[in-house]
């Protein structure tokens, strides 16, 4: 559990336009944790601090807490919940079944949804159309879960009355979602076909902590292409 003096003890290595870094920024803001943000320039050679902190993947985000590095965005978010469990809100369900469900959908976002969006972002012609269709199908599965799963149905967020693990995992990608739609001239989340998901996204993006952490989609489109041409940030 975290102690006093958090400001001096917490650092975040990241790139402001990375959706995975955005996830960590949102989690830290929700918990009210002061930290030092260290911008990593992906166009330059990787810094000694980054290579030392994440020698396996050599990617951001990396949270450094009391000198100890934690890597991978959703592992970091879970670490934040456990390290600062005395701080509200709770980012993870207390019930073990609900927690397992949350982890399942987080894995779905990272293993299925994000790769299809990334492929659509760089796709052309038939390949672009195929990846857009795959992405829409993935979003429809999430819409169905919002409608039928007892863990989420009738609640404003995946985490219930407050945002939680899935909200951060999926919501952290919101600028990327908008960027893909604009770059490919497509609609990934149709308000008519996905009313629950569309309403959730609007609700999530109106939160002050989200507005402060989220990059501008217009800037995201041009810069993200350059970022993705280099080795991608970790998830």
TrEMBL record:
Catalytic activity: RX + glutathione = an S-substituted glutathione + a halide anion + H(+)
GO CC entries: cytoplasm
UniProt xrefs under PROSITE patterns: GST_CTER, GST_NTER
GST C-terminal domain boundaries: 95-229
GO biological process: glutathione metabolic process; toxin catabolic process
GO MF assignments: glutathione transferase activity
Keywords for this protein: Transferase
Keyword NAD in record: no
InterPro entries from the UniProt entry: Glutathione-S-Trfase_C-like, Glutathione-S-Trfase_C_sf, Glutathione_S-Trfase, Glutathione_S-Trfase_N, GST_C, GST_C_Tau, Omega/Tau-like, Thioredoxin-like_sf
GST N-terminal domain segment(s): 8-88
Gene3D superfamilies assigned to the protein according to its UniProt record, in alphabetical order: 1.20.1050.10, Glutaredoxin
The EC number(s) this enzyme carries: 2.5.1.18
Family: Belongs to the GST superfamily. Tau family.
The protein's name: glutathione transferase
Record organism: Pinus tabuliformis (Chinese red pine)
